[in-house]
Structure formats: structure tokens, C-alpha cells
Amino acid sequence: MDFPEVFALALLCLLAWFWLDSLKAREAGVAAAGQACQREGLQLLDETVAGRGLRLVRNEEGRMALQRVFEFEYSESGYDRFRGSVTLLGREVVMLELSAHRGLRLVQ
Fold first, then answer.
1. 33: how many CB neighbours lie within 10 A of its CB?
2. Collapsing DSSP states into helix, strand and coil, what is residue 95?
3. What is the pLDDT of residues 39-67, one digit of tens each?
4. For residue 101, what pLDDT band results from cuts at 50, 70 and 90?
5. Which of 92, 93, 94, 43 shows the shortest CA–CA distance to 72?
6. C-alpha span between 77 and 61 (Å, rounded)
């Protein structure tokens, strides 16, 4: 094998690893959002999350890790929509936000 072939194969393996790792992180994001919505008595709309950001950061041990931010939509009544977000460092949830619905309640 020539160097270009080895390089192409290594790049292909790296892309496959990144794709599989991204799928697992997305699954962790969906699970975290679903559990938070269930705990708060909310409905996770579309049962999915969408990627909003990706960057390299240092974890607690000082090692480089991928930080991913996912957005999702949820509802209190089924007639409204709010945005939430979940931040993962690797596959560990480090922050989950769904506070928008609390400040928008109407009192009659």
C-alpha cells in the first residue's frame, strides 16, 4: 500500500468513528431531554434533538473531548412550543436547559 492509500483508509476510519460517536451522543441527548421533560411533566416534541454546536474542550482530567450542544422542542400543553438545549461532553450530560416555559405562564 502506498502512503495515499493508507492516508485515505485512515481518514475513512476516522470519519466512520466520528459518525458512530455522533449517533451515540445524539441518542444520549434524546434520552436526557426525554427524562427531563418527563420529570417536569412536559412533552418532548418530535422525540428528537438537533445539533447546534460542536467543539473541542478539556474535560475534568485535562484531556481533549468533544462538546456537543443539541436543541430540542417541548410543550406544556401540546399547543405551545418552547426550545430547550442539552450540552454533552463526550456522552456525559453537563448542562440541560428547559426553563423558557416557566417565565411565560399567563395568569387570568
1. 26
2. strand
3. 989 999 988 999 999 999 998 898 999 99
4. low
5. 43
6. 42
Query: Both ends of the chain: CA-CA distance in Å?
Result: 74
CB 15 within 8 A of CB 36: no
Q: Report, in angstroms and rounded to the nearest whole number, the Rg of the chain calculated over CA atoms.
A: 18
Positive or negative: CA dihedral 21, 27, 30, 32: negative
Q: Rounded to whole angstroms, how far apart are CA atoms 22 and 9?
A: 20
Contact 29, 35 (CB under 8 A): no
Picking from 92, 71, 94, the residue whose alpha carbon sits closest to that of residue 83 is: 71
pLDDT in tens, 5-31: 999 999 999 999 999 999 999 999 999
